Amino acid sequence: MLQGQDVVVLLAAEHRDDVSPVSLYYDVNVEGTRNVLEAMEVCGVKRIIFISSVAVYGLNKNNPNEAHPADPFNHYGKSKWQAEEVLREWYRKDPQSRNLNILRPTVIFGERNRGNVYNLLKQISGGKFLMVGKGHNVKSMAYVGNVVAFIHFLIREKTAGYQVFNYVDKPDFTTNELVKHVGKVLQKHIPTVHVPYRLGLLGGYCFDILAFITRKKLPVSAVRVKKFCATTKFDAQAAHTSGFRAPYSLGEGLARTLKYEFLQPQPDNITFVSE
User: Fold this and answer.
1) 46-101 tens-digit pLDDT
2) Catalytic positions, written as ranges
3) Does the CA dihedral 66-57-82-244 come out positive or negative?
4) Beta bridge partners of 142
5) Are 87 and 48 in contact (CB under 8 A)?
6) Coil, helix or strand at residue 126
7) pLDDT tens digits for 2-25?
8) Structural domain contains residue 269
9) Can you list the residues of the chain whose pLDDT is less than 50?
């Protein structure tokens, strides 16, 4: 599969908040990275772009840049940091011929990306949204179209050495601003009921207990409440002063996603072929 290729873009990851057993994070994110590097060695591939995560910094940090100390708070972040360390060790063994770019995006959203941001947008647009906390917390986000464009930029422009980049679409929205923007795009009033943080967190723990009893994965958990209420603001100056120009603003990316998913829903016409 890698024979004759110039560069590997490694996006595969175990990501969900509720993965069990937790060893899967390390089996996929760390050992999987080692397996890719071994395959690259066999096939003579010297370049890799690794999609890590701002989760390596932890929660509620003060606008960390790429030099900020790692302090991951969950197994996903810890496993991503360990995978980065594996990659740095690989690069240091032959820095003259190897090329390593690490990309740490914030939470990514976009058309067909049915992850955490999609679930949040769905709740807001459907009138089933409860604002936990005051909504003043900043939520850094990244539109998938811009992330793909930046990866293409790295492939084309960053062909030597070792670089690390955060990726965030600027300027950031607060949660209140996000809700307001969703209402504007959808042309509907979005009622917001503010629930005190402690009460919301208690509700999250109740859902955790229910999930444990029923052995079902539920859309609400204590971890998700903490992440929703946390300030997740990250410095992306390095990316945005590198010569890269994002094709879309954050507002445009949100508008494109909302129109595709909720105003003019499109059928999923992707065909998966197994070999």
Assistant:
1) 999 999 999 999 988 889 999 999 999 899 999 999 999 999 999 999 999 999 99
2) 76
3) negative
4) 108
5) yes
6) coil
7) 888 999 999 988 887 778 888 999
8) no
9) 272-275
CATH number (domain holding residue 21): 3.40.50.720
Structure tokens at 202: 């208690």
Instruction: Determine, yes or no, domain membership for 267.
Output: no
Q: Is 1 exposed, middle or buried (0-12, 13-18, 19+ CB in 10 A)?
A: exposed
Question: What's the one-letter identity of residue 39?
Answer: A
155: in domain: yes
Residues in the chain: 275
Q: How far apart are CA 122 and CA 120, in angstroms?
A: 5
CB 39 within 8 A of CB 32: no
78: enclosing H helix or E strand: helix 75-92
Domain of 107 in residue numbering reads as 7-262
Q: Report how many domains make up the chain.
A: 1
Examine residue 273 and state whether it is found in any structural domain, yes or no: no
pTM as predicted: 0.86
